[in-house]
Every structure is written in structure tokens, then in C-alpha cells.
Design brief:
- This protein is α/β, with parallel strands linked by helices and about 475 residues long.
- The chain has helices at about 20-25, 70-85, 100-115, 155-160, 190-200, 245-260, 275-285, 305-315, 335-350, 355-370, 405-420, 450-470, and strands at about 5-10, 45-50, 55-60, 90-95, 115-120, 145, 165, 180-185, 215-220, 225-230, 260-270, 290-295, 325, 375, 380, 380-390, 395-400, 430-435.
- The strands form 4 sheets. Strands 1, 2, 3, 4, 5, 6 and 7 form a 7-stranded mixed β-sheet that branches.
- A hairpin with a 4-residue loop joins strand 16 and strand 17.
- Helix 10 packs across helix 11 (about 405-420).
- It is extended, with a radius of gyration of 30 Å.
- About 35% of the residues are buried.
- Mean pLDDT is about 80; it is low at about 30-40, about 170-175, about 205-215 and about 235-250.
Length: about 475
């Protein structure tokens, strides 16, 4: 994230439309939106552009001037941090509800912060401007009226803020960072892991399931590399996913998996590897994402408990034998250095270009060591291979009767490719195609130099034949 871009923080009471406004400014649907107070809890960062100029915006969980306790208190702490790091605060109030006591309390806090504040009256579709005069009492002048849902008034607001924006090209190229989705059941320590890696209380971490609801993106740098960590909501058993909010959280988790370079699947060593762990991890593997398994809360376990957890991993996750396995303590930071080293190596494997000559060399070596079986008296022949895609890595193998190739031989080939190209952590996909050589029948277009060489060769052959006839 470029520090040269101005950062606007969205604050206000819960349910005044901050997340809807965030999605409008960033032209995304990254923030969950539901008519439920307190839905947003963590800071959510986004990037917006207006007429060639760029800015950053932070969505917050809202301020709770009174009766803030538990997670609400932590969410308010996140909002206060957003105010501290912001260049400007965009203070949203609800035009439909009118001026509320909590609005006055929040305004008092913002005056103490010393930050420049723009007062925004959201949901102002049907209210006359004179009806909004009551918000003058907050001490920030006349409120800018908008409808975040419909987009009304947003352009006029951005025009007033554009002087603080910077030219869009100063932003670092998009996509240079390594995107890592952190997945797992509720309360396995995903948020704690992110906070330990980043070095601050960046996302909420509480000893109760369901603390994280949204998919929160957290940029950070480590050992000269840029990363984007995505903290996801814990995926529960289907029988427990009844609320609309829970279903939205699952959708966000699936989207985070789909967009990630690497997935770190976090499991709880003290609870063991359960059926739900296997389903969540299998889901990420099905999407073809590179995978690292991190068994958390490893510290303090007796040796017999550790041996039991290792056997559980082998028993419940046999389909992930290719994935690096780490035993860590997110709370104390043990094992995280080795974890990040594997993140770098796995990302390099994800981005690796596999040349066709090298793939064919490995294919031929594999067949020399272990020939494909014969089917109905005919031996299956595999002719050549080429790369068909990355993330997931796909290798296309052409031959005859490939549809009859046993699964055990397919796994053998996948292991050979993975070993030769060091594709650690990659759920390698092999695609087998039966048919003729795709280059068969295609005319090779010769260059002018090749045509001259061919003409000289034919001339020599013709002369040699004439000489032979004379003898």
C-alpha cells in the first residue's frame, strides 16, 4: 500500500451505511452489507479513483460511545486506530434517523482528534436540505448529502475531496504482492496468526467462535517482499449455517480462496483434525490453490498428544501429502519464520513456467522407468506434454488411449513432475488428451533463408542423381 495516497476513514454510528459507501467509493463489494447494526468489526482497506486521481479508504466497525463492551469495545478500538492513521475523517450520519445522541458523542471525539472532518448525511434521498440543519450542531459545518446506495451526491462529494487526492499512476502496480488466504474452522487462531505476522492488533482476536465475519485484507511486508493476508470467517458445519449473515461470510471465504495465490489452512492442535477441517481444506484444494497446513496451538502439548495430532493429519488429510506441514504457535510466534520461508518457495512454484522440452524430458524418463500398462493387448502411449495453465498448475499430456490410463499411473506421473520441478505445495492437475499430433497436417512456413537453403539442397540432390545415372 503506497503511503503517498491519502487515506479517508469512514466513521459513525453502526448501521449508518458506512460499508455501502465503502463499496461505492471502491467500486467493489468487498465490505459486507446487511441491515444489521455492528456487522463490520475490523478495518477494511480499499482503493478508489476519481477523474484520474486516487485515494485510500478505510471502512470501520463504527464507534460505540456508550455501553461498549466485549467485541464491540474491540471494534471501537479498530475505528480509533483508523482515525489516528487517516488523513481525513468522513463522518457519516443517518439523514433518515436525524441527529442522535451518539452522533454528538462521536463528534466530540473527532474534535479532540484534531483530524480534518467532512460531515456526510447518508440516506438523504427524500429529505429537504433545510431538514438537515440540525446536524450543524455537530460543529462541522453543513453536511454533504448523499445516498450511498443509489450513488446520489457521491460525485459532488468527491469533487470537493479531489484536491487531497494524488494522480493515480503513483500507486504501486496491482498484483505484485503475494495473496494469502487464511482459512479454517472458527476459533482456530486465524486472526491471532495475522496479528503476530503483522506485528500489531490488526484484526479482532477473541476466544469465541465467529469473531471474524468479513474477509479482511491486511497488507504487510516481510524480508523485502509484499504480502496481502486475507483473514476469513471460520466456515461452520452446514447445519449451523442458518443466518443470512453466516451464508454471506462463507461466500466471502470462497471468494478469498479463489483469488489467493496461496492458502494457509489453520487447524487447532488441541482440538485435533476434525471432519470440518478436512472439508474446508479439501474445498481449497478443489479450487486448485497452493496449500500450506499450519497446526496452531502446538505449544504446551505433551509428546503423546503431539504424536496423536500428527497421526490425525496423516489419517484425515491423505490427499494433501504434497503440502508443507508446520506446527506453530500464533500466540507466541514459534514456527512462523519457517512458515513464511515456505510461503515464498510455494509462491515461486505457483508462478513457475514449465518449458515444453523439459516437460517432455521428464515424461520420457518417467515412461522409461515405469511403462504405462497395456490395455486390451495394446500399450498406452504418451507422446508429449506441455503446460496448460498456472495457479493451478496444469500439465496437458497427449497420447493414445489416455482415457484408459489407471489413476495409480496418473498419480505416479504427477509425483514425477512435482519432484523434478520442485512443485511443493501445488495441487498439480494433469489433463490427458487422446488424438493426433495437433501439428499434423499444418504447413511449416519457411523463411526466405530457409527457402534458399532448401533450393540448394534439392539442386545438389538432383545433380547427384544425374551423376549416378551417367555411371
Amino acid at each position: 500500500m503506497s503511503s503517498r495516497l491519502p487515506l479517508f476513514a469512514l466513521v459513525g454510528r453502526p448501521n449508518v451505511g458506512k460499508s455501502t459507501f465503502f463499496n461505492r467509493l471502491t467500486d467493489t463489494r468487498n465490505a459486507l452489507v446487511l441491515d444489521l447494526p455492528g456487522l463490520t468489526r475490523d478495518r477494511q482497506y480499499g482503493r478508489g479513483e476519481f477523474e484520474g486521481r486516487a485515494f485510500r479508504v478505510t471502512d470501520t466497525g463504527g464507534l460505540f460511545p456508550e455501553n461498549a463492551d466485549g467485541i464491540a469495545k474491540q471494534a471501537e478500538a479498530q475505528a480509533r486506530l483508523a482515525i489516528t492513521e487517516a488523513d481525513r475523517v468522513l463522518f457519516l450520519v443517518d439523514a433518515q434517523a436525524g441527529l442522535m445522541p451518539d452522533d454528538r458523542a462521536i463528534a466530540a471525539q473527532l474534535h479532540k482528534s484534531g483530524k480534518p472532518v467532512t460531515l456526510i448525511a447518508n440516506k438523504a434521498e427524500s429529505r429537504a436540505r433545510e431538514a438537515l440543519a440540525e446536524f450543524h450542531a455537530l460543529g462541522f459545518g453543513e453536511a454533504q448529502t448523499i445516498s450511498a446506495e443509489r450513488g446520489e451526491g457521491v460525485t459532488a462529494l468527491l469533487c470537493k475531496l479531489s484536491a487531497e487526492m494524488v494522480d493515480a499512476p503513483v500507486e504501486l502496480p496491482v498484483g505484485n504482492e503475494i495473496r494469502i488466504a487464511i482459512i479454517g474452522r472458527p476459533n482456530v487462531g486465524k486472526s491471532t496468526l495475522i496479528n503476530r505476522l503483522v506485528g500489531e492488533e490488526r484484526v479482532l482476536a477473541a476466544d469465541q467462535p465467529g469473531t471474524t465475519r468479513d474477509a479482511i485484507e491486511v497488507p504487510f511486508s516481510h524480508a523485502g517482499r509484499d504480502y496481502l493476508l486475507v483473514d476469513t470467517a471460520g466456515v461452520r458445519r452446514k447445519a449451523r449455517v442458518e443466518e443470512h449473515l453466516e451464508k454471506l461470510s462463507i461466500v466471502k471465504t470462497l471468494d478469498a480462496i479463489e483469488r489467493a495465490h496461496i492458502v494457509i489452512a489453520v487447524a487447532d492442535a488441541q482440538a485435533g483434525i476434525g471432519e470440518q477441517d478436512a472439508k474446508i481444506i479439501g474445498l481449497a484444494a478443489h479450487h486448485g490453490r497452493a496449500m500450506i497446513i499450519a497446526v496452531n496451538k502446538w505449544d504446551g502439548l505433551a509428546e503423546d498428544q503431539r504424536e496423536w495430532v500428527k497421526s490425525e493429519v496423516d489419517l484425515k488429510l491423505p490427499f494433501l501429502s504434497y503440502a508443507p506441514l508446520h506446527f506453530i504457535s500464533a500466540q507466541h510466534g514459534s514456527g512462523l519464520g519457517e512458515l513464511m520461508k515456505d510461503v515464498v518457495q510455494v509462491h515461486e512454484a505457483v508462478q513457475r513456467e514449465l518449458s515444453t522440452p523439459d516437460l517432455n524430458r521428464v515424461l520420457q524418463q518417467a515412461m522409461q522407468s515405469h511403462q504405462p500398462p497395456a490395455v486390451i493387448g495394446r500399450r498406452i502411449k504418451l507422446r508429449y506434454a506441455h503446460q496448460g495453465g498456472r495457479n493451478p498448475t496444469v500439465i496437458v499430456v497427449h497420447g493414445n488411449q489416455t482415457e484408459r490410463l489407471p489413476d495409480v499411473y496418473k498419480r505416479y506421473l504427477a509425483n514425477e513432475f512435482r519432484r523434478e520441478f520442485n512443485l511443493r505445495g501445488i495441487p498439480l492437475q494433469l489433463v490427458f488428451k487422446t488424438g493426433d499430433n495437433p501439428f499434423k497436417g499444418k504447413k511449416n512456413i519457411l523463411s526466405a533463408r530457409q527457402q534458399m537453403k532448401r533450393k540448394r539442397l534439392f539442386t545438389r540432390l538432383k545433380a547427384k542423381r544425374k551423376k549416378g545415372d551417367k555411371k
